[in-house]
Amino acid sequence: MKKKFLVIGNPIDHSLSPKLHNYWIKKYRIDAVYEKKLLNNNEIEGLISNIREEKIHGINITVPFKKMVIPFLDKLSTEAEISQSVNTIYKEDNKIIGDNTDIEGFKLSLEKTELETKNKKALILGAGGVVPSIIIALKKMQVEKIYLSNRTELKAIELKKNFPEIETIKWGETLDFDIIINATSIGLKEEDEININYKQISKNKFFYDIIYNPPETNFLKNAKKYGGTIKNGKMMFIYQAQKAFFIWHKVVPKADNETINLLDI
Ligand code: ATR
Asked: How far is the CA of 212 from the centre of ligand 1 (A)?
């Protein structure tokens, strides 16, 4: 019987997960199909019960449900537990398990750039659903210090409760950092601008944008103009999917050029 997989979110139209997973499903001749589903908050519980009944075999979770799904699961992986963020669900030994592959996805994408992160200072912009995963990944990579800045200060302060070692700074302020990560949704629209003073930032800094569509946000365009090194979120997206694919199908799909090009929009 064809196994069914889903990505749920709201909105969900933009998601490239079906394209990527179905490409790998076909390539590795797996008898499965991967679809996307727009979900409302009150539908989460019902949908997850489909996993228990094996009508659905795995789910990816995107904004805004990564935390909301947790009460309906039987068990969390360590990474999901420490981040309180779930992006991959599956059933094992009759238990519904929530895992987090964003942490590894972000970490791997940064490692592949060969950027030295040990003892470096990182500044995260944003405090949304993906930020705990980024903090955990940066900690694993032994950055020296993590600063965080969010428009709504209260959300930054909330995050600090879970990660007391981070230092929050006011929105619009910058300081000396080595790596800056845009984890806000600013940039999803072509004309979006982040209010930072690029001229004040000394050269040779590393700019990472979680956004990969558009491939070069104004944040990255400006960074390049002022001599920074840039990276978008495409490889993070591919690596998180690769890990989810392995969890479900026990195959490590290749993240080769064909795969990368598949996602060019
Ligand atoms: P969620 O907060 O529901 O997890 P998200 O898309 O993961 O949603 O996060 C959106 C992030 O982008 C938040 O950090 C948000 O800041 P607020 O907490 O102040 O809302 C940030 N963001 C979105 N639009 C923004 C804007 N115009 N200026 C500054 N920050 C913005």
From this structure: 16
Which listed residue (66, 107, 231, 243) is catalytic?
66
| Residue type at position 166 | I
Q: Mind listing the pLDDT tens digit for each residue in 104-115?
A: 999 999 999 989
What one-character-per-residue DSSP string does 74-110 give? Answer: SEE-HHHHHHT---EEEEETTEEEEE--HHHHHHHHH
| Amino acid at residue number 229 | T
Structural domains present in the chain: 3-101+238-256 (3.40.50.10860), 104-234 (3.40.50.720)
Distance 187 CA to ligand 1 centre (A): 11
- Cα 27–Cα 30–Cα 36 angle in degrees, nearest 5: 90
Q: pLDDT, tens digit, for every residue of 30-65?
A: 999 999 999 999 999 999 999 999 999 999 999 999
Q: What is the pTM of this model?
A: 0.96
Q: Which two tokens stand for residue 138?
A: 């940066």
Active site residue 66: yes
